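hey so u asked for the seq, here:
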Amino acid sequence: MSTILVIDDNPAVATALEVLFSLHDLSTLHAASPEAGLALLDSEPVDLVIQDMNFTADTTSGDEGRALFAAIRERHPDLPVVLLTAWTHLESAVELIKAGAADYVAKPWQDAKLLATVNNLLELAEARRELDQRRDCERRRRDDLARRYDLRGAVFADPASERVVALACQVARSELPVLITGPNGAGKEKIAEIIQANSPAKAGPFVTVNCGALPADLIEAELFGAEAGAYTGANKAREGKFEAADGGTLFLDEIGNLPPAGQMKLLRVLETGRFARLGSNRERQVKVRVVSATNADLPAMIREGTFREDLYYRLNTIELAMPPLAERPGDIVPLAEHFLDDRTLSPGAIGALQRHPWPGNVRELRNVIQRAQLLASGPRIEAEDLGLPRAPAQRTSPAREPEREQIEAALQRAGGVIAQAAAELGMSRQALYRRMERHGLKPA
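ran it, structure tokens below
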């Protein structure tokens, strides 16, 4: 049963509210003064406060109500507070709504409206508690991962990222090849680093090759080495990346760009651990853990005949799919804050970051933050400093009244955090609560 604390110096008001709430299975506590109310808050579990704006010492200004609200907010920042006010003090109530009060109810109140407000706020408070508990659980899991494994400084908070990181730590113990899939800039190389850092070969070298950055006729020499004279310009013998990675891990980025001859040779190395340099008949033996990555659709390339099916299954013994940043909304703000030096993000900037689709993924986010730090004139980065395109104006909504779908999308991007969703939509938390109630929406 939820408990409501009524702080009002009028016994008749307290009695009327107690009777009303008791008929709807709500428990009521009463305090006749701000001091008594604060004492009850310190000693009893309370889910919601209804406070008057004026008490016996001052019956006109509303100063006592403002002071009481400030004291409650300082001690219990997440506790919903409903202001009970006469119409003459409406301006003071609106001022406190902007400061974080949940709502206000004018005297004399309507029972049905007051009950709807109270029940809605209690449901929202319960939803926030559940969300906080879920986030605490997720944070504990991340902390446990960080204690047990070397995460190479990876920054993540979204459950989708956590699943990939946890799986990378799990498969790191094996020597089997791993294929990491996902779009450019999503963080595939960081996952490869985590695999290396927690593998039996963690003391060995970690060698990276971007197969998409090399001309096709040089990829084989880059991977397997070449003897002098093996190709034009090869004036001396050179060691390949497989030799350099012996006893460690070789990360082959953009593996879909490997030409057919290189694919065949790579398959043989994966099967036997043996290869020959270009221009040489002498085979060399290495022990290398191969981790590859691609943003290409390898099954489609197999159907087109541009990628070997047997190599795909050899590389794909274990697949880790890294989602694009747009599908990991919980990572956006932590990553942005990680890229910051000595500035903070304003609520408007946070909203702009969460609205942007991030086609360039984490790489684009880092570039945006670095540019914003150069352009920002104050200690906080504002939305305009980010240089992100603004969402097109809604033609059917000149007063920017958000539709149900917009509210749902904002809540989803914010992970159910009302404050962040409200900042994105350009309104206060209380305004968003009212619109959620109007549309029959509840926090996730």
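Residues 393-399 have pLDDT under 50 and may be disordered. The first strand starts at residue 3 and ends at 7.
lmk if thats what u needed
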